[in-house]
Amino acid sequence: VRFKENVSAATVVCAAKGYPESYPKGMAIQGLDQAGSVDNVKVYHAGTKLDDENVTRCSGGRVLAVTGMGSNLTEALAASYKAVKQITFEDSNGDSLMHYRTDIAKGAIRKKLRIGVMGSTRGTALLSVMEAIAAGSLHAEIVAVVSNRSKALILEKGKSLGVTVTTQFVSSKGLTRDQYDAECTSVLVGAGVEYMLLVGYMRILSKQFCDHWAGRCINVHPSLLPKHAGGMDLEVHQAVIDAKETESGCTIHEVTEEVDGGPIVIQKVVKVDDSDTAESLKSKVQALEGVAFIEAIQKKCKTTVSYADAGVSIDAGNSLVEMIKPACKATRRPGCDADLGGFGGLFDLAAAGYKSEDTIIIGATDGVGTKLRVAHMTKKHESVGIDLVAMCVNDLIVAGGEPLFFLDYFATGKLDVNEAAAVVRGIAEGCSQAGCGLIGGETAEMPSMYAPGDYDLAGFSVGAVHKDKVLPQNVSAGDVLLGLPSSGVHSNGFSLVRKLVEKANLDYESACPWDKNAGTVGDSLLTPTKIYVKCCLPLLKKDMLTGLSHITGGGLLENLPRSLPSNVKAEITGHPPLPAVFSWMKQISGLDDYEMLRTFNNGVGMVLIVKSDVVDEAKTLLREAGEDVVYDLGVLTERQGDEEQVEMKCSLA
Q: Are 385 and 409 in contact (CB under 8 A)?
């Protein structure tokens, strides 16, 4: 009898000592409140009564029935026994006179998992499961094989298991989808199926079927879901090749009404070679499907579930912390010692030279965007850590502040310790370039959120500035605009960049067409974002800047106005020639100057606003800080009405 889907219940009877022979009565029952407070437990009274003092006492042999519930029988038993241990029947001498069995449902727990199979084709992946069961490595048995095709070879596999296995073709003729699925469910339930495998099953399942088998039915898909969900067979493998993906594989997922959208149970990965065809990739992936099914069934058969079973490795996380500690310690600066492992990172403002009463704290957060996809595909990860720091600290410096410390967030589906360590080493290098301490971070392993090999990054930086030195301030007509070169595309516009690479029929291992010395396209595009902190700080300390503008997404046209008051505009008269990478993108994309200027940095990564009488001194300080090239971009003039705040008086050459 099934009362609730995916819920098990187990009851332990608390009896008077001696039952069913002669047994005492009248003992006070202690611990009922504590037993009743155990999660997912209900205590039912059978042989009890209340005395005149409102004390619950035993009045029969079978005194209490303690029922626990859980997602499986093991959990239900654990809850029930936990509650039972709170209860005692005590006589007037304080002796315990309660008895209960400790072997409830042991036979049921030890029984094999009864598996049903539905398939429409050969059922190749089922062979591995059958072999594992025969070898005793799976505590399960196949009890039913059902197909919607009378001549499907998977039925032969069912017949080979013997007459005790229900092997049946179920015709769909004249039946609606709901009716057909109900017929299949009837056959499966009649065979005593507890857990379902879909092996090459070529029908869309009804809501009623999915609801009935919720949490107890799994399917194999020939890709690394959520990629290529909804695709089938060779079209999936061809789509992987067309997308130039370097990895593919198979996914075992729970079946829900959303096609290929159920929770992921297991994923197996294969490398996609340049020589692979859809057929050869299918062979690689298919070889892993049986193994994946076996691991999924083993998970179901387990009576305990650890964090690692859920796809999260605590040991891997601890290994990562130990691996990155030296890199983090190298970022020490006054105010922090950059030790890891605590619940929070500490920073001493006073030790950094800031007094709390006249200091403003600045915060900035950012990511690396789809530039990460290039890192994923090339398997080169250190430079994106520098990008992450740069995108945050360059924003801090624009407010006139000094970056003090940095924290990172690394999220992935499955933690690759070496890969994550490479990212963090890059973050530490970025912090060293910015002069801020890497005082902590978070590594989140979330198997159901990210496909294998994928990760995402977020960075958080905090800086400080004296209250009277917050920028921009005193920006006015006549101020001069100086530009500092970018190192390349930096970390913005990569959704477009990736499309242009595809349009040019290149991949990230192709020779770089715009720079023969750069190696590959991937190497050039992964050039890390330039960090402008150390070259700008000397000018900030001498109060030589009235404003700064970090040229990120939106380019010069969108970012420079953020640092200007409404009554001035920028006249750009000396924009430098386009670096080779931007010339190539302009040519391939067909974008005009306006669109280029509002999409990319075009070779100018930071704009400095200075008074005209300190231009020469500012350039000297910049050169002393290592900036050999400083562009004379233009000047600020008075703005008339609703004029655009950036006027280009030169073209992008």
A: no
Q: Is the pTM here over 0.90, yes or no?
A: no
DSSP letter at 210?
H
> Tell me: the pLDDT tens digits for 266-314?
999 999 999 999 999 999 999 999 999 999 998 887 644 444 544 555 5
Question: Tokens 């910015």 belong to which residue?
Answer: 434
Q: 224, 451 in Cβ contact below 8 A?
A: yes
CA distance 633 to 572: 6
Structure tokens at 230: 């909804």
Element (H, E) at 185: helix 177-190
Strands 455-466 and 359-366: antiparallel
Q: Which of 200, 192, 194, 189 is nearest to 157 (CA)?
A: 200
- Burial pattern 68-89, b for ≥16 Cβ within 10 A else e, equals bbbebbbbbbbbbbbbbebbbb
The CA distance from 72 to 85, in Å, is 21
Whether residue 290 contacts residue 391, with contact meaning beta carbons closer than 8 Å, is answered with: no
Q: Which is nearest to 89 in space by CA: 11, 19, 10?
A: 19
Q: Is the peptide bond preceding residue 472 cis, with omega within 30 degrees of 0?
A: yes
Q: How confident is the model at residue 3 (pLDDT cuts 50, 70, 90)?
A: low
CA torsion sign for 340, 344, 345, 350 is: negative
Contact predicate 428/324, CB 8 Å: yes
Helix (H) or strand (E) holding 240, with range, is helix 233-242
Given a contact cutoff of 8 angstroms between Cβ atoms, the answer to whether 339 and 326 are in contact is no
The average pLDDT across 543-562 equals 96
The span from the CA of 84 to the CA of 100, in Å, is 9
Give residue 562's Cα distance to chain centre: 33
Q: What sign results for the dihedral spanned by CA atoms 504, 509, 512, 516?
A: negative
Q: From CA 543, how far away is CA 557, in angstroms rounded?
A: 26
| Residue 365 in tokens | 């957060």
